[in-house]
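Holo prediction. Input below; ligand is pyridoxal-5'-phosphate.
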Amino acid sequence: MLEDFLKYQAKTTPHPLGLEIASASGSFIFDTQGKSYLDFVAGVSALPLGHSHPKVVRALKSQIEKYMHVMVYGEFAQAPAVALCKKLVELLPENHEVVYLTNSGTEAIEGAMKLAKRATQRSGLVAAHNSYHGSTHGALSLLGFEQQKKGYRPLLPGVSFIRFNDASDLNQIDETTAAVLLETIQGGAGFILPENDYLKKVKKRCEQVGALLLLDEIQPGFGRTGKMFGFEHYGIAPDIIVMGKALGGGLPIGAFSASKALMNQLEDDPKLGHITTFGGNPVIATAALTTINEIIDQRLMEQTLDKEKIFRKNLQHHLIKTIRGKGLMLAPIFENPEIPNFLVARCIEKGLLLFWLLWEKNAIRISPPLNISEEEIVMGCTIIKESLDEL
Ligand SMILES: Cc1ncc(COP(=O)(O)O)c(C=O)c1O
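Structure of the complex:
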């Protein structure tokens, strides 16, 4: 399979990890040789319930037998998508009355950017250095890492960049700004948390100049940091919230939410403001609704901060300088990139799956399923420490 994978499937790096997957269940992935890997990555935060959770599988089977796809987004009322949007509205801040479902996080970012431009009749967008919001031209225009963009110019005009956590840059947000788009917790930058009321200051500046605040909750969303959404830690509510990854419980999804007054902009004059064939797909919406319900029913959100403590306690090693992040999005930081490179490779050999972060090369990503057990956490941390001891 590996030979055909390398031959026929387009690659995104010259040397992919190339594990040959046979199956996956709970916190473990199994390769075609029968070797098991404890998964500390969870599909890059996309599997809050681990792999193939039985309740999600059961719900999916039942939906597939009823119908899989009947019509493009927004024309027919289909119970799974309706129930999902209703549930999300219950969980979101008060002024978020409507949800638009998309195929991916990136598509939700695109829809949210368009909505902000249309609602404000302005074209300026402000994003943060070292941000990541997706890989299409619009999302790429907001991406704050120049090296990644240089092959694709020209990108969107009117985009400017501010330093995350630096309030002295906020004067770049002005009356021409349609929206400021930030990750609540910067992911690719190394799990950087907002500090010193930064998000409140951004929100205040947006209000002063009539710009909208969009928060990308694609990584912290759905319990990963101990609250349903990451921004709940910081005492603000954004105007538009972009969701994805964990929401789908392992299937592809994205969503953006706003007030009805804002979202109405997409439906008329001209109508079809954002259209998508598979957004709101009933099978995927079923996975999403079942996943959210299980996160709530099993109180996984509440357990996240205790699990963070277990990680921090078990990841004490002289080569780990600090551990950034919150809840179950944690990034041990090392002296140089050689250590994470060694660690990812060595841990895979020893049966633990870790991964890198996009721009912070001195870090490894730890973003396991939210329902990972204490025993599994200790097991993985022991493998990390034993591997570091070899250096
Ligand atoms: C913060 C953030 N925004 C947007 C995206 C894009 O989401 P997707 O890959 O589902 O399109 C990602 C994906 O890694 C992300 O981490």
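Residues 349 and 360 are 23 Å apart (CA to CA). That is the main takeaway for now.
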